[in-house]
């Protein structure tokens, strides 16, 4: 009888482990599907104006419902698997108890076993039965917990390719802001087979304004992302005042050296003064006001009933595009950066708002190294130099006048925009 328990229970444990592996796989798929369904719902809600604008409510509902149904099917399969495991566990344990009774009864009838010994085996087998029954009931929770925990620990153990802190800091009094890209090659981690930048060389002298232009997908915004060290180049290097930026402290580089202004700046659902102060949390109210004046934002801010204490809606929906952009410029100027990156900063604005923002940008650019990324070629004609990027390489480089005299691809772009204006 002891052999029955010693052989049967390990065999049952081995079978349960095999079944458990498949259950863990199904549970992981169910967790991933739940996350995907949540992403679909979140995307629809965050873009509710676009959804309403295209009367796509039913489409989004059906899409979300399909993802939820996939999750339901996976969870149903998981529940069936756990049920089968529990049924097999109970069947095996009860079978062991019946086996003990049957074999023990035979031995008792033959006089090979005393009644007390049979009772001991019965009590032992029933104790084992209750323990395994409880374990099988908890096993479903264990499977779900292990799958959820695996996803959590996967992110906990994830190490960024670019560290957040640590590295050199160039003394502020000696920082010039000269940038150079030397034989830079880059592909995004999610698209390693697609080359974005290919042996690109570019020099941006300190205090100069260099503009990047070219067709969409040519790599202009990628250069800005590399300068801020959101990524590191796969080949070549980028230097700041002759120092490889991979040796510099990323937090210092982004927080003190570079001011980044994008096409669609993000504002937070808090007051205007706190949105501007986000650029430098220790700034005084007077410094915030000076930054707003430099960004041509002070006048319209003071016209609000609560002035700088006016609370903006989510993502700044309560202010116009031009006002939002000028608040973002003030936020960037507050930290007094040596380098300004303007990524399509005026392309989403109407002509009146563009003039206010462009005046603010012209004022902000004085005395700084500026990298301008633009589709509207009319906004970059006064740049010190213009680099036309095509397929990840600089196709033409020079001032607006020299590029126009060459009558090359840049000249064609200017002519095309003039015709379509």
UniProtKB/TrEMBL annotation:
Signal sequence, start to end: 1-16
InterPro entries listed in its UniProt record: AAA+_ATPase (IPR003593), ABC1_TM_dom (IPR011527), ABC1_TM_sf (IPR036640), ABC_transporter-like_ATP-bd (IPR003439), ABC_transporter-like_CS (IPR017871), P-loop_NTPase (IPR027417), Type_1_exporter (IPR039421)
Gene3D superfamilies assigned: ABC transporter type 1, transmembrane domain (1.20.1560.10), P-loop containing nucleotide triphosphate hydrolases (3.40.50.300)
Membrane topology, record value: Multi-pass membrane protein
Domain spans labelled ABC transporter: 179-416
Keyword set, alphabetical order: ATP-binding, Ion transport, Membrane, Mitochondrion, Mitochondrion inner membrane, Nucleotide-binding, Potassium, Potassium transport, Signal, Transit peptide, Transmembrane, Transmembrane helix, Transport
TM region(s), chain numbering: none
An example molecular function term from Gene Ontology annotations: ATP binding
Source superkingdom: Eukaryota
BP GO terms, sorted: oligopeptide export from mitochondrion; potassium ion transport
Subcellular location: Mitochondrion inner membrane
Annotated ranges, domain ABC transmembrane type-1: 1-144
Cellular component, GO, one term: mitochondrial inner membrane
Family membership noted in the UniProt record: Belongs to the ABC transporter superfamily. ABCB family. Multidrug resistance exporter (TC 3.A.1.201) subfamily.
PANTHER family: ATP-DEPENDENT PERMEASE MDL1, MITOCHONDRIAL, MITOCHONDRIAL POTASSIUM CHANNEL ATP-BINDING SUBUNIT
Designated name of the protein: Mitochondrial potassium channel ATP-binding subunit
Protein source organism: Ramazzottius varieornatus
GN (gene name): RvY_18716
